[in-house]
Amino acid sequence: MTMNRSITLTLASLLLAATIAGCKKDDEDPVPAPPSPAPTPTLYQRLGGTTMVNDPANPGQMIEQGYLGLRSVVDSTIFVIAGDAQLQPYFAVLLAEVGAGDLTGFAALSESLTEFFAVATGAQNFTYDGLNMVDAHNSANPRMTGLVDDAAFDRFIVDLVEGAAQNDVPAAIVTDIGALVETLRDPIVQQ
Ligand code: HEM
Q1: Which of the pair, 39 or 167, is modelled with greater confidence?
Q2: What is the CATH number of domain 43-188?
Q3: Is pLDDT above 70 for 11?
Q4: N- to C-terminal Cα distance for the chain?
Q5: 173 exposed, middle or buried (CB, 10 Å; 0-12, 13-18, 19+)?
Q6: What does the domain layout of the chain look like in residue ranges?
Q7: Is the Cβ atom of 116 under 6 angstroms away from ligand 1?
């Protein structure tokens, strides 16, 4: 081996070694990322979410299970309220209609309350286009009689829990719906 060839080889080896060392640094396995925590399911998902099921109220039609669960609770709750002497006075307009066999106001309230709860619990495929919670519960709403006080609000929660129980909603979900409803006390209680 000539001197020149030997120098060339040595340089080449050094270069190779340096390249490998450089690559090694770049190629080092990054610290493995911790597994990302599973996203917390929304209340709507816990109620069945977007899974499509038969709508018992409309044979042949499908409905999101989460929406159906909420609508069932809402409808049961309206019936509980209708039989609740403490809350009946607030719903005088509705109760007079129903007493006369007119269910249009009931259907409209069922839909707006269900859409409200659907959006509030995390539904993506529904919108609420009714009155905001302040106006829904004062004279801006001609269907509302009087103003809600804390006792009436507490009673509404009792009736809602009863409506949920009638539909076998799991206790943990009822607790979380209760917490959600509690966040609405401030705009709704207006006396
Ligand atoms: C968190 C609790 C509540 C929620 C989420 C809620 C929600 C609603 C919604 C979405 C409407 C329909 C608004 C519209 O038509 O644009 C409504 C109407 C009404 N709410 Fe509430 N509400 C709550 C508590 C209460 C309480 C405690 C009372 C009385 C004690 C009450 C009495 C009424 C009445 C009388 C109406 C009109 C019903 C009708 O259309 O015939 N609400 N509420």
Answers
A1: 167
A2: 1.10.490.10
A3: no
A4: 102
A5: middle
A6: 1-31, 43-188
A7: yes
CA-based R_g, the chain, Å: 31
Q: Do residues 67 and 114 touch, judged by C-beta distance below 8 A?
A: yes
Contacts of 33 (CB under 8 A, 6+ apart): none
The residue whose CA has the least distance to atom 7 of ligand 1 is: 113
Nearest residue by C-alpha to atom 41 in ligand 1: 94
Ligand 1: nearest atom to the Cα of 128:
10
Averaged pLDDT of the chain: 90
- Does 184 sit in the ligand 1 pocket, CB within 6 Å? yes
Asked if residue 112 has its Cβ within 6 Å of ligand 1, the reply is yes
pLDDT over threshold 80, residue 100 = yes
| Closest of 191, 159, 150 to residue 85, by C-alpha | 159
* Atom from ligand 1 closest to the CA of residue 115: 10
8 A C-beta contact, residue 95 and residue 182: no
The pTM for the full model equals 0.85
